[in-house]
Amino acid sequence: MRKLNNMVVVIFNKALLKKVLIFFCLFSLANKSFSQNLVLNEKEYFETPGLNVWVFNNEYNGMFFDEKTAGIEFIHHGVRTVTGGAIRLQNTPEQWDLIPKMLSRKVDKVNNSIEVVLRYEEFNFDSKIIVTAKGKGFTINVVLDKPVPKELEGRAGFNMEFIPTSYFESNYVVDGKAGTFPRYPASNTEIRPLSQKIPQFAGHTTFDDRGKNEFIATLPLESGKNFILAPENPERTVKIQSEDQDVMLFDGRNLGQNGWFIARSILPSNKTGKVLTWYVEPNAIPNWKREPVIGFSQVGYMPSQKKVAVVELDKNDKALPTASIFKLGEDGKFTEKLKTNVKVWGNYLRYNYAQIDFSAIKEKGLYYIQYGDQKTNTFQIEDDIYSKIWYPTMDVWFPVQMDHMEVNEAYRVWHGKPFLDDCLQAPINHEHFDGYKQGPTTETKYKPLERIPGMSVGGWFDAGDFDIQTFSHVSVINSFVESWEAFKVNRDETYIDQKTQFVDIHRPDGQPDLLQQIEHGVLNLVAQVENIGHPVRGIVVPNLHQYHHLGDASTETDNLPYNPSLKPYESNGVSSGTKDDRWAFTNRSSFLDFRTAGSLAAASRALKGYNDALSAKCLTLAIKLTNEATEIEKKAKPDNSPMSRWGKGSDMIAILQLYLSTKDEQYKKGFEDKIWKLLDENLEFNMNSALLAVSSMDAAYKQKLRGYVIKYKEKTDKENAENPYAVPIAKRGWGGSSQVINWASTNYYIHKIYPDIMDKESVYQGLNYILGCHPYSNLSFVNAVGNRSKKVAYGGNRADFTTIAGGVVPGLIFLKPDYLENKDDWPFFWGENECIIDGGAWYVFLANAVNDLAKEK
């Protein structure tokens, strides 16, 4: 009986095996018939539906080093998930670790391959990476003409980085063994002697080793020859097979919260020629198409304004013929109120576009857009729809950014009093980070690393980092003064006490918040001029291990002035031996003097009647700086540097603001002598200043400016017609939200002065772009404004994957050759998600400008 049963089992198993074999054969044939292999397209990257593979279309940045936007990268089912495919010298490179320079890039369409040559100048080490399409994936071959240098043996390797948020709640399989991508870093590390560490940028270090001369090295989660990442998620599945060296999987978040998951193979020692081969196969879903993105204002619209939604479509997708608008009725049900034709716009960069014009809807209420199977979230149509959209920026964002203050909100303390240790004079001939450099002299009365007193007052953190950037302050103060003078913004929702250095959010104190913020910014500019002698490039921490600080700003230093007679980390209660005090970078420039003078002159008008003593001081210092900067320019050598070109016309701005504040005819004449030539040289850059002057000039000035305004409109209209949103979209590594805001604000001034030239729709259009009618997604770029807004953004809180209400993100960065991106699941892309103070101030002006237009009959 047992023998018979065994025979039955064998027969059954053979039958089952046959069925399994038939299934896999059919499955294989189906995959072969439906899958499409990678091919090199005319834009020089590999492509198939659902997958793009870039090979150094974007290079590493020499200033900010590794921004996770370079090397071999994937656009995987519409989302950039992989970056940094390159030879790197660390298991988990941090932003400031050394990066390779690309010497050459060759595209071979005949052989369907791309070859790049990389070099580490510091080690005279060259490597060649050849990426070749193969089957449904591609091979990566690393070729060396010379062996890996001795000092890089066991350190140089090929890395490919995977963004963590695309792989959370997923698994990986290594040589048949399964594991789970950790939600929070919990893998192993070890301590190694500092002598084994590859130096970071300019001798800086991201690690505070507390004098131990050691560093942290990450250890792999797993290693093996065959990897499958996210096998359960077809949109993110990637196979990696190594012919020779093991592939190791690391978690870069052990060293920095902005770290990625990294697949890495060490290059072998004493070998030349082809030293490493990977086969990589990202899964591509057959016939995949990206879901349409319907861009519209998340805040909503006014009844009378033009209302156009923009539909972003996969390049293999075609626009539907119609779309519908549904309105909520009194019965609580939505009913169709408009069925309208969808207008095909055409191709822009990598996508096709169409437009849905529903301007015919003028009835107030709650609506959504239906496009095919897609239904947007709801939005409102109301008369006062824009009246409160700037409240979070003034009520929350700016208070949180206030330096030298304890900032409280209800039960929460955003940060204690930071940087009470004043600052130190930066050392000479010092190459710092984030663009800071000190030249061969201090141009002050202070010696290198000498304390500069009186500086622990006023100012805002520039962005997510906690430095004082003087030019940003100048921009904010100028914009706030414009908002005050144009709209008399007298909202009071913040308690600000400069004597006790305390701020309480949502607590009125009887004073207009806008004037209090102008005062706060001015206090730091005045302190710079009075204590240092002139405005400075900025004030920033000296160490990288401080600079990447997240959380409470008051803990970035020990808040005690540096005392060289004490040992590091030693304190006597009033000073300490720790070199953590911020440095002031004090090289003088006439450009910054003029810009600061203009800002102080403007502030003197706003502060009159609120803080008369500070108002008078502002005007006195503005005149002093203008006179001194004029003398500096007379003695300056010809300079065609980018900073000099960028600062051109700064004297005109100072003179204009001095004329507006004093009505002194010498300043009026000086302004008129300069403005027309500057408009001829750079129309867009100088238009705002020209418009600001109109109310204080004669009719002849206004008539002459009219011709420039017409030319400005013709130029910007032509440029903006190149994209379906009809706004100036920036193609760079820093998003263009501010550019759009400033364009719309300039249009506001033009409309108020020359309503026959510029209508108000161009002002609304810029604001609607910021509030959701833009590429990639339809999220509002202003945190906590609109029905759906950014969920994560770049501030001191970015490690918490949250936002600070009212912050305006930069928006969409451009990655060559055709990709606009704004990630909402990863806060660490500074060019996409880092909110800055001047962008917030410009947004406050635009929001109030739109409210002003809403009152027009």
Task: Average the pLDDT over all residues and give the rounded result.
Answer: 94
CATH hierarchy class name of the domain at 44-282:
Mainly Beta
Distance between the termini: 98 Å
Q: How much of the residues is beta strand, in percent?
A: 15-25%
Radius of gyration: 30 Å
The CATH architecture term of the domain at 44-282 is Distorted Sandwich
Tally of separate helices = 16
Largest sheet: 9 strands, antiparallel
Strand order of the largest sheet: 1-2-3-4-5-10-19-18-15
Unreliable stretches covering 5 or more consecutive residues: 1-35
Structural class: alpha+beta
Keywords: Carbohydrate metabolism, Polysaccharide degradation
Protein name: N-terminal ig-like domain of cellulase
GO biological process, one term: polysaccharide catabolic process
Pfam families: CelD_N, Glyco_hydro_9
What's the quick description here?
It is built from 16 helices and 42 strands. Among the domains are: 44-282, Beta-galactosidase, Chain A, domain 5; 293-381, Immunoglobulins (Immunoglobulin-like), CATH 2.60.40; 414-592, no CATH class. A hairpin with a 2-residue loop joins strand 2 and strand 3 (51-55).
